[in-house]
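User: structure tokens for this one?
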Amino acid sequence: MPTSFHQSVIDEFRAHEGKVGGPFEGGDLLLLTTTGARSGASRTTPLGYVRHGKALVVVGSNLGGPRHPGWYHNLLARPVVRVEVGTSSFEALAVPAEGARREELFAHVVRAVPGYGDYQARTSRPLPVVVLERAEPEKWEGRPREVRTLADKLLEVHTWLRGQVRQVRAETEAHFAAPGEAGRPPGLGLQIRQRCLAFCQALEFHHVSEDGHLFPGIARHHPHLTDVFDRLADEHRTVARIQGELADLLAGIAVAEPRRFRAALEEMSARLDAHFDYEEEVLLPLLADVPWPPPGLPGPTGATTAP
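Assistant:
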């Protein structure tokens, strides 16, 4: 839970359109909401930030303390976060910077807010530098201009998920194309880890929502499609198995077996494309006349899978 001081800052921020007084007066402040790595509960933290182009950068300074702050451990486990800036609120992918990129961004932060340099001087741990990448749904490839029906929503979510797995594959291939030490392939970075982990979590939510809400709702009106839903459920189990393999490989900060990761990712991509193709062929015609959101049916296709 936030401390009483943090909660007072949060309350003031939300009551005054992102403006607060006291030690934060005149500074750039955002609210970062993460999901507890162990508890699964939402945690909101006020943080200073620095702009870098269109991205927002935050630093895990913990006032120069010896340990990383709790919010940093949370976003490593669950990379999709909620950001509040002024009156704007949006979901973002949190990606810690590494290597030269981290050094470049930290120097940029220190130029803007020299106090972070003082925090770094107090501790031997490198302060984490995290880039918050805002999603822009309107730029999703193939996204329907307007989502008016349940068919539109299902296609929108599928389009986003297809795009995410393509992006992870492209970044993975770029890593493998780069020369590694002693001829070995390079390890996989935090960018790939965070994006893939976010994709896996969104995919799981989408399929659980379909199994729990969408498929039973359609089946009640189309009992002759029992074989179709049996096949879709079986495909969900297959995808979940591969997703579990990916999650196991992503459990640490570094992917210990990048070749296994690459193979599992290729299998996931192939299976998911075939599954989505079949599901769209069968279900889109049935959902084309159902308004979105359908009356009395809670967001079955996973509306929040898109960040």
